[in-house]
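Researcher: We plan to redesign the surface later, but first we want a full-length starting point. Tokens attached.
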């Protein structure tokens, strides 16, 4: 084949080498607009796994690259003047220029033609004269731009500014993150050694800080001088250097996250940053480029047509790229919002940084550095008022006069088994089992303040004497037989009421016997649902008083905590979301007005609820419809209003406020909303949403993303989730019900035997 490679970065050079190794008869030319020894950036980071892949593909170039690697195992984080070091991370770095020189040398050995200082503005002539064209022309790919309508690139220019510098200061003992507070805001650096004499030193800051410094009006040398002053005490008298002298201005840029809908067109394929980019904070861009080069060479050589080779290439590499981009997005967003976390204790800040991409879990950190994680867990327990050495999920927590034995919460889960609002034996068995299962706090499902406030005919209530008798029986059992606390969630369905139970046609109106509905405005849940009445003052007074009466009943039942349901499109939520609040009076329009009635309800309930018992509020922190609805930014304002009103903790959920919502699902997908609210307001929060492993819980708590963690479906599958999770973590201090101790002992023996088998003792 006659092959043109546009771009002599790692992707282009390594693809050319890989193709030549598969068939020396290929006629390959690599074109590069810069000089052979030009490069932007200093060092690149790879992993041992990537090196092994390179060695399998081309042992000679891999050996040459390995000779010039700098290895380090530690990560150091300098924050608030404290240097925190953890180990077991396993990085290796090489100078970008050295890597390119080695690949150029190998390419020449294989009779690959290298044409430097050749500016390729349009790939079309090469597509006509060559069998195959690889566009490895970087983030600002001209080839991608030439066929943008086909490739459909999604280019997201991120918020932070960064500049890629070098220094002769040694960072050879650890990959080092440095955070410095300046007169204009926080500035931070990513520093790592890549050869015996030189380290990469990437300086980053927010756009606001960059503007306040006036970096945009500085020359490169003026900009560097400011960075040297900021990091003076970390540079040991060494200067900072740039190798981007060919760039006019200060060389600061915003990172562009690139992802294309398609990666090939006719006989041209995108590779490396031209196809997809990964943020430098996880150091995997070069890894992606080299591994994509290997894959493309394999498929071009083995498949009968380019069309089939390209199809396999995209199918195989897209999943890996998306996984890495997801981790990179988490990482870059953490740095974009890092000022949110800089008030954390250095221990918690370090943990938050290490787990920012969600690729490193709590137990994975234990494998990497058991000593450091153990000390971090001790710190967490100490902050919680405990002296025990246990995972974060088993730390106590206190709200007002309520003390929880651990941080696990059984979320409210509708059972739809009530009869005329009265909970049945089903509810007693369901909640009693979960209270016996080890969780610190158990919620009952949303319990309605009136018959008209029910979601379905199967929903329970707090409005008849029979309800009080049934709920008190349950609460008395929980308090007598377990050490769990129990919370009542009060709600009114609003426009989402009078619908079928969950396992029928959920959210659809009843086939018969519908009752009238009311909401903030005349906005139906869907065209199929009935139109609610817009509440007038009399309605608002009536519902407020129903919430008060229900709270008083919950107190007589002995519940330890109360939660008001301000989420998921129910009545009080319909006031908060602009999607459902169309009012033109003092209860509509601005957020202050939209919060007015929910706050009236809260204050009325708080006035009758015992002072030593907490009240939580559940909110939808994202309507998932963009700026038309509640956004995560507005959710912070909502939480601040609740905090100022005296709400003790925010139960941070999302969505279910509109049929138009387009949520982005994934594990722990709603935790970022809790994280943002907790760390921007200082308010205690509960995290919810697809949290199902002890690792998830421990990482959320240890990183300071929530104070309590709610699990719903895992507790449907396993009422004893907490007991089993503790056993899996090797914790032997969780209290089991006395009649179940033989089962506990057998579980412990099985867990110990499994551990022995894993460690080779059996």
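Model: Full-length starting sequence:
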């Amino acid at each position: 084949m006659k092959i043109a490679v546009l771009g002599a970065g790692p992707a282009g050079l390594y693809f050319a080498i890989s193709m030549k190794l598969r068939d020396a008869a290929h006629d390959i030319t690599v074109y590069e607009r810069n000089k052979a020894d030009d490069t932007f950036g200093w060092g690149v980071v790879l992993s041992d796994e990537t090196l092994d892949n390179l060695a399998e593909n081309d042992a000679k170039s891999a050996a040459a690259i390995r000779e010039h690697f700098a290895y380090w195992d530690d990560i150091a984080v300098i924050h608030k003047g404290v240097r925190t070091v953890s180990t077991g991370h396993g990085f290796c770095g090489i100078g970008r220029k050295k890597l390119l020189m080695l690949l150029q040398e190998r390419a020449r050995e294989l009779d690959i033609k290298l044409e430097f200082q050749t500016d390729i503005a349009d790939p079309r002539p090469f597509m006509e004269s060559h069998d195959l064209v690889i566009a490895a022309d970087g983030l600002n790919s001209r080839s991608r731009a030439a066929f943008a309508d086909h490739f459909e690139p999604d280019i997201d220019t991120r918020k932070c500014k960064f500049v890629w510098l070098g220094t002769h200061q040694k960072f050879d003992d650890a990959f080092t993150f440095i955070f410095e507070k300046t007169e204009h805001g926080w500035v931070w650096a990513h520093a790592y050694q890549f050869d015996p004499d030189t380290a990469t030193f990437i300086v980053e800051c927010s756009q606001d800080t960059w503007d306040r410094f006036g970096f945009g009006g500085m020359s490169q040398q003026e900009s560097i001088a400011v960075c040297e002053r900021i990091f003076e005490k970390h540079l040991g008298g060494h200067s900072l250097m740039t190798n981007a002298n060919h760039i006019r201005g200060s060389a600061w840029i915003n990172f562009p996250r690139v992802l294309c809908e398609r990666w090939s067109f006719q006989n041209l394929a995108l590779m490396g940053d031209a196809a997809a980019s990964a943020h430098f904070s996880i150091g995997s861009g070069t890894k992606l480029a080299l591994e994509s080069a290997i894959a493309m060479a394999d498929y071009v050589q083995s498949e009968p047509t380019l069309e089939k080779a390209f199809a396999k290439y995209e199918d195989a590499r897209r999943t890996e790229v998306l996984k890495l981009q997801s981790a990179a997005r988490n990482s870059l967003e953490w740095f974009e919002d890092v000022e949110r976390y800089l008030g954390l204790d250095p221990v918690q800040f370090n943990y938050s940084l290490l787990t920012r991409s969600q690729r490193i879990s709590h137990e994975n950190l234990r494998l990497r550095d058991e000593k450091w994680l153990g000390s971090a867990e001790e710190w967490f327990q100490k902050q919680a008022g405990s002296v025990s050495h246990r995972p974060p999920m088993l730390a106590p927590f206190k709200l007002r006069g309520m003390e929880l034995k651990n941080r696990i919460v059984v979320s409210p889960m509708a059972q739809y088994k009530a009869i005329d609002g009265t909970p049945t034996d089903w509810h007693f068995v369901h909640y009693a089992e979960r209270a016996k299962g080890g969780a610190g706090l158990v919620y009952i499902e949303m319990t309605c303040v009136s018959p008209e406030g029910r979601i379905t005919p199967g929903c329970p209530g707090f409005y008849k004497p029979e309800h009080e008798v049934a709920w008190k029986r349950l609460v008395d059992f929980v308090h007598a037989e377990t050490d769990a606390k129990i919370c009542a969630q009060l709600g009114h369905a609003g426009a989402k009421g009078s619908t079928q139970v969950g396992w029928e046609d959920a959210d659809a109106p009843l086939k018969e016997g519908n009752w009238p509905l009311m909401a903030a405005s005349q906005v139906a849940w869907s065209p199929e649902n009935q139109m609610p009445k817009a509440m007038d003052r009399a309605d608002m007074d009536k519902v407020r008083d129903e919430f008060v009466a229900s709270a008083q009943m919950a107190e007589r039942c002995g519940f330890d905590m109360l939660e008001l349901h301000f989420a998921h499109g129910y009545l009080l939520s319909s006031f908060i979301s602009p999607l459902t609040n169309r009012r033109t009076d003092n209860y509509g329009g601005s957020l202050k007005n939209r919060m007015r009635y929910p706050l009236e309800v809260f204050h009325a309930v708080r006035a009758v609820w015992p002072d030593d018992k907490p009240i939580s509020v559940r909110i939808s922190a994202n309507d998932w419809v963009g700026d038309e609805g509640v956004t995560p930014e507005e959710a912070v304002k909502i939480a601040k209003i609740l905090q100022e009103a005296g709400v003790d903790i925010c139960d941070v959920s999302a969505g279910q406020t509109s049929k138009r919502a387009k949520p982005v699902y994934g594990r722990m997908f709603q935790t970022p909303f809790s994280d943002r609210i907790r760390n921007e307001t200082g308010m205690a929060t509960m995290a919810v949403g697809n949290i199902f492993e002890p690792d998830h819980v421990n990482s959320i708590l240890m990183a300071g993303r929530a104070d309590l963690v709610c699990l719903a479906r895992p507790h449907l599958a396993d009422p004893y989730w907490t007991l089993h999770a503790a056993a899996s973590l090797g914790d032997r201090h969780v209290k089991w019900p006395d009649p179940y101790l033989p089962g506990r002992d057998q579980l412990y023996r099985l867990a110990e035997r499994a551990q022995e088998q894993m460690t080779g003792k059996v």
